[in-house]
User: Which sequence fits this backbone?
């Protein structure tokens, strides 16, 4: 693993994002919608509201806050490989010494940082707003430590998972739009998981949050490895997979990549 | 801040005002509104505003400055015969895409420092061969040694470290500046002193003045030059140029040619695939003609000699009364009349035959308009071989 090459990829990707209006608008507008709607509901809850009513409303907020790291990264990640192929920039990159794992890690980090930063910022705004603006009964549920810990831990891990799924699809998709649609669809199962936590079907506790986070971390690392193996230079350049059984040279090249 | 920075901030403001109007009025909620507004304004500024202005010129095509006219000096570099170790050795390289054979049993060697031309019609397998040698795709069978490293048995990364490939499409990031594009590639090669290398590479292709321009604003010729600068960054042992002058105007093509000359002078091995036969004839020490299979390989003049019979062309003012007797001289193997007053003589050696034929014509009292050696170009060689293939497949 060459850190300089990963850094070069991250720097290039971030520069491109900053000049891409689509990415900017997605990063800015989508979380705003997710923020305002539940805040309106929570600010209208009086101190006299019942416990289940408050928990349900806070559950919606938590769910939306966890949807942000699932929904935003695929927009960026799905473009990362197939988008470069479409604009003809991938082949020159593949002729350099960069390994598939380095290239993909760089692209993942570049998608991860802004996505998680926005997700944290949105959650921070929501939590502070509720602390000072909502009824005490709401604030006490939102500022429950295990709930906060779950949000803090799961936000980056869910984002990482969504990014690897997006990049994995991007390495195999034939078209950017298809990749983005499939990546968004692939994020749906995660919604089930986040719903269970948000609505406290799985009651968040510190050991549970840490345990689930470690499991997600392991899944993310495995996803990086799997996606790196899915990265087939021949398929990306020619549109056809390398015949793995025919060529003894192929396996050597794959190992080298 | 750019327009979308303001747009996002305005959107946030509108959303928050809407939210506040729905809430019961309370002075305690004012800091929340300010916090939301402030964070969004900051986010908009950080994520897009700072450099968003740079997006504006990307689609614009800016013509490169008019070049100073220079007289075209036709030149043909002295061809080198490779003597040292081979930079590239290819043995029985074959590539199938399903049932289709793209490259079939191709073998050749390229010497270190040689400019090697790889010619062939569309679909002949030129680009596939380059991709195999650049470790982008795996051969179905056969082997190769690239810059001293066996293909398929060694680390593809190490091969790619020693070569540079310029595909037909320059493949530049249009949202990045020229310098940013090269900095990215310098990073991928993990080069020392990248800034200095970038400056040198840009100077070598004469685009130093456009270093801070977005690639999206460059003309096609300038983009091609930037792509060439990219191949120079890592000081590669072998440079693969895939149709480097495709679609370029004559001035831009000449600049690319100058650069190939420069690479030759620096001892870089150049593997040039091209459709432009005059380009290959002028620059390449040797050429190979590929049409899925390797049809021929050698120096252009050797190919001409190998493929075409040496011939003299005689033109006279009036038809010769008895050409059979006139051309019965040493060195002339056979003759044919091209027109009534034009004759083509097959000869074993033009230097021997030409004086003999001249004397015979003078002795016969012929009014000779011209006597010259028939010239065949690389294009003739190419067309002869490719036409053979077309006929064979018909």
Assistant:
């Amino acid at each position: 693993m060459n850190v300089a090459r990963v850094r070069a990829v991250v720097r290039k990707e971030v520069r491109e994002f900053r000049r891409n209006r689509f990415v900017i608008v997605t990063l800015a507008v989508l979380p705003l919608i997710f923020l305002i709607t539940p805040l309106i509901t929570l600010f209208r809850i009086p101190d006299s509201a019942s416990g289940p009513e408050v928990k349900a409303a806070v559950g919606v907020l938590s769910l939306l806050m966890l949807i942000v790291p699932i929904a935003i990264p695929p927009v960026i990640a799905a473009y990362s490989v197939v988008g470069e192929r479409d604009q003809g920039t991938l082949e020159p990159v593949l002729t350099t010494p960069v390994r598939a794992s380095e290239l993909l890690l760089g692209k993942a980090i570049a998608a991860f940082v802004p996505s998680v930063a926005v997700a944290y910022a949105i959650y921070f705004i929501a939590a502070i707003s509720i602390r000072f603006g909502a009824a005490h009964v709401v604030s006490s549920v939102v500022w429950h430590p295990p709930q906060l810990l779950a949000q803090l831990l799961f936000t980056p891990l869910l984002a990482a998972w969504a990014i690897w799924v997006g990049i994995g699809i991007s390495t195999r998709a034939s078209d950017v739009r298809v990749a983005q649609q499939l990546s968004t669809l692939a994020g749906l199962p995660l919604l089930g998981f986040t719903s269970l936590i948000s609505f406290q079907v799985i009651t968040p506790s510190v050991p549970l949050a840490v345990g689930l986070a470690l499991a997600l971390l392991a899944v993310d690392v495995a996803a990086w490895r799997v996606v790196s193996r899915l990265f087939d230079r021949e398929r990306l350049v020619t549109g056809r997979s390398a015949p793995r059984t025919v060529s003894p040279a192929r396996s050597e090249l794959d190992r080298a990549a | 801040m750019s327009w979308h920075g303001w747009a996002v901030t305005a959107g946030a403001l509108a959303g928050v005002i809407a939210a506040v109007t729905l809430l019961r009025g309370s002075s305690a909620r004012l800091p929340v509104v300010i916090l939301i507004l402030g964070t969004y304004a900051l986010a908009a500024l950080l994520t897009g505003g700072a450099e968003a202005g740079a997006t504006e010129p990307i689609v614009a095509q800016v013509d490169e400055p008019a070049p100073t006219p220079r007289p075209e000096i036709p030149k043909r570099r002295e061809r080198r015969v490779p003597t040292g170790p081979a930079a590239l050795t290819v043995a029985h390289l074959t590539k199938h895409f399903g049932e289709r054979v793209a490259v079939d049993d191709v073998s050749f060697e390229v010497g270190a420092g040689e400019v090697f031309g790889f010619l062939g019609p569309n679909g002949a397998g030129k680009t596939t061969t380059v991709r195999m040698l650049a470790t982008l795709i795996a051969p179905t069978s056969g082997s190769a040694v690239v810059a001293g490293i066996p293909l398929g048995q060694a680390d593809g990364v190490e091969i790619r470290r020693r070569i540079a490939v310029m595909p037909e499409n320059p493949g530049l990031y249009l949202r990045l500046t020229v310098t940013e594009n090269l900095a990215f590639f310098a990073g991928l090669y993990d080069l020392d002193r990248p800034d200095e290398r970038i400056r040198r590479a840009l100077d070598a292709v004469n685009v130093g003045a456009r270093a801070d321009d977005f690639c999206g604003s460059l003309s096609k010729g300038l983009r091609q030059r930037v792509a060439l600068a990219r191949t120079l960054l890592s000081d590669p042992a072998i440079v693969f140029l895939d149709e480097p002058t495709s679609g370029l105007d004559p001035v831009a093509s000449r600049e690319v040619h100058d650069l190939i000359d420069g690479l030759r002078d620096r001892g870089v091995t150049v593997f040039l695939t091209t459709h432009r036969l005059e380009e290959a004839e002028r620059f390449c020490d040797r050429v190979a003609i590929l049409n899925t299979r390797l049809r021929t390989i050698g120096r252009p003049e050797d190919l001409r000699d190998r493929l075409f019979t040496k011939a003299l062309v005689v033109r006279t003012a009036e038809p010769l009364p008895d050409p059979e007797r006139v051309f019965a001289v040493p060195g002339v193997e056979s003759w044919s009349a091209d027109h009534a007053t034009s004759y083509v003589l097959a000869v074993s050696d033009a230097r021997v035959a030409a004086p003999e034929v001249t004397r015979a014509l003078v002795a016969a009292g012929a009014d000779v308009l011209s006597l010259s050696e028939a010239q065949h170009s690389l294009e003739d060689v190419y067309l002869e071989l490719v036409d053979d293939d077309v006929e064979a497949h018909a």
User: Anything to note?
Assistant: Confidence is low (pLDDT under 50) at residues 1-5, 16-33, 43-74 of chain B. Chain B touches chain A through 77 residues (CB under 8 Å).
